[in-house]
Write a structure and sequence with these properties.
The protein is α/β, with parallel strands linked by helices and about 210 residues long. Helix content is about 50%, strand content about 15%. It has a single domain, classed as P-loop containing nucleotide triphosphate hydrolases (Rossmann fold, 3-Layer(aba) Sandwich), CATH 3.40.50. Bound molecules: zinc ion.
């Protein structure tokens, strides 16, 4: 099973990906994580990516495709995989289709911006031990204090209202054509991300079948 996961920041992609991996024994492929890993390992690919990112440019489609092409050859992909963070654009989606035939399903977790912004700005992390919280869904026992180590919690720079709005805007600009692309292929499954984690999973499982 070859899946693509589409959703704005805080739409719940990570949570749903974990459930899909467990149920269908799929590999999880996050191109962002992989790029960071290549860079930290200092591979040829990583060095190339690092110099591109250092110049402030975006990593090219060719480079990302090369990474995905290698990654899906790995053993853990034999039952299939979930792509997260890729493709981001229609051009990348076309290149992916050239590479693998086509995806079985593009799952779009749709949430209104207002709700996403609330979730994003409710995120808190502990600067000392790294524990993460969410004032709405996973609040610390004492407000603003880490349960684990007692440190005062802080907010990541890109989890502020202004940064959150900008991230959502970028997401819409990039993803709407992508959603249309998969819709035209009859491969899009859109699920309402506001119905609760378990209901979102059930809807996806029902669509994919056992
Ligand atoms: Zn802590």
């Amino acid at each position: 099973m070859k899946l693509v996961l589409i959703g704005a920041p805080a739409a719940g992609k990570g949570t749903q990906a974990r459930k899909l991996i467990d149920k269908y024994k799929l590999a999880y492929i996050s191109t962002g994580d992989m790029l960071r890993e290549e860079v930290s390992k200092g591979t040829a690919l990583g060095l190339e990516a690092k110099s591109i990112m250092a110049s402030g440019a975006l990593v090219s489609d060719e480079l990302i495709i090369a990474i995905v092409r290698e990654r899906i050859k790995a053993d853990d992909c034999k039952n299939g995989f979930i792509l997260d963070g890729f493709p981001r654009t229609v051009v990348q989606a076309e290149k992916l289709d050239e590479l693998i035939g086509s995806v079985d399903k593009a799952i779009y977790i749709n949430c209104p911006d207002e709700a996403l912004l609330k979730r994003i700005t409710a995120r808190q992390t502990c600067p000392k031990c790294g524990a993460s919280y969410n004032k709405i869904s996973v609040p610390p026992k004492v407000p603003d204090i880490c349960d684990v180590c007692g440190e005062k919690l802080t907010q990541r720079k890109d989890d502020t209202v202004e940064a959150g709005k900008a991230r959502l805007e970028t997401f819409h600009k990039q993803s709407e054509p992508l959603v249309d692309y998969y819709k035209k292929q009859n491969r899009l499954f859109e699920v309402d991300g506001m119905i609760g984690i378990d209901n979102v999973s059930s809807a996806i499982f029902a669509e994919l079948g056992d």
